[in-house]
Amino acid sequence: MNAEVLQHLAEKVGTPFWIGDAALLRQRIAAIKLLTEGVGLQARYAMKACPATRILKEMLEAGIWIDAVSGNEVLRAKRAGFPGSSILYTSDVFRDGAIAILREHGVMPNLGSPGMLRELQTAGYAGPISLRVNPGFGHGHVNACDTGGPSSKHGIWFSDIGDVAIRAERFGMSVTMLHAHIGSGPKFPELLDNMRRLAKEFAEFIPRFPKLTAVSLGGGIPYNYRNANDQPSLEPLRTVLEDARASFCSAAERDVRLEIEPGRYLVAPVMTLVARVTDVKRTETNERGKGETFVMVDAGFTDLVRPAMYGSFHRITIAGRHERDGMADVVVAGPLCETGDVFTRDGQELLVPRRLPTPRVGDLLLLHDAGAYGYAMSSNYNSMGRAPQLMLEEDGSVTMFSRRETVDDLLATEADEKIS
Ligand SMILES: Cc1ncc(COP(=O)(O)O)c(C=O)c1O
Questions:
Q1: CA 25 to ligand 1 centroid distance, Å
Q2: CA distance 144 to 184
Q3: Which of 71, 92, 126, 274 is the most buried (most CB within 10 A)?
Q4: Which architecture does CATH list for 22-267?
Q5: Domain spanning 3-18+269-396 has what CATH number?
Q6: Domain-by-domain residue ranges, the chain?
Q7: Ligand 1 centroid vs 378 CA: distance in angstroms?
Q8: pLDDT at position 203, please?
């Protein structure tokens, strides 16, 4: 999208705003459909990555199912049109009335903590369940995102699974699915190795689960944030999935469905956060450290928290500016009353200036590949309203699928109610 069009959209809806690309979303969905086409493979969308109804409806139309992590995500998926039977509820803790919601809508729970069994039983649940296993290994793009291994809070430790399954049967619940998500790391070969290892462990477990109908190997297909043109081919993953499914069917001596649940892969490149450059200022080198050029923009970690939270890298461009305009090493910072409200930083909380065409006040700065865990993780800190989400449709028109939040939205939950 060129600078003129972006400036026009900015005039219409203000800045910052999100702009999506419907054609790209459909390409990503098509790639996952191709990966899972044929009998016995099913993809779910890990909707935590970007739960907007606009996105969910595209998944629904493509026949992709849902992985939800809260009762409210289940309700969002329901409202987008998903039947309860196509939603899996994966979490380690029930809250916000999740059990009642699961029961009402016929959604299967995927338990990530043994004590959840008792909670389900107390609430009168007696249907099928899935168990989320911590297989003792995994990887993340940073340690905080490791989803398997001794330091991970996720899942039921693999050697406890047998006991949990016996207790489940006693409570009238049958384990019909085994699940693990072993992380969202940046290296594809590592994911493939871990999936092969996981498949081997699951194949050994399977004979102990006579009612098992499905196994999920989770999400975690990586996205190359540094070079959008260098994305791994999914072909080797297809082989891993086919081999895994064959080993599960043979271990179970019947048909077993194999599932994956990508989030990031489906939506990461689809959304871009567009912010206005409001100032360019500098600090000088002194005994405390090096001076920097700060490009101030009106988006902050309330819009896109990944850089501040994990030191994640997002490509940055300035609309309409090119190398020939002159380059500068700059730190890009936002409007929040937090020194860490900086988009150009690393995992050690250090500033990492980015070489960019020298921006000017009024320019639009684009934070790319922010569709996964972008808007979804945004907040109202400093009473910032969430920015509107727009979509460039395939016919060239632009639609808005969520509006800018106002102070009325922020105050809508305030109450003055006597509780006891
Ligand atoms: C259980 C589960 N499934 C799927 C995903 C999606 O991972 P990704 O977006 O890296 O594909 C996550 C992410 O944290 C997860 O915890």
A1: 18
A2: 11
A3: 274
A4: Alpha-Beta Barrel (3.20)
A5: 2.40.37.10
A6: 3-18+269-396, 22-267
A7: 18
A8: 96
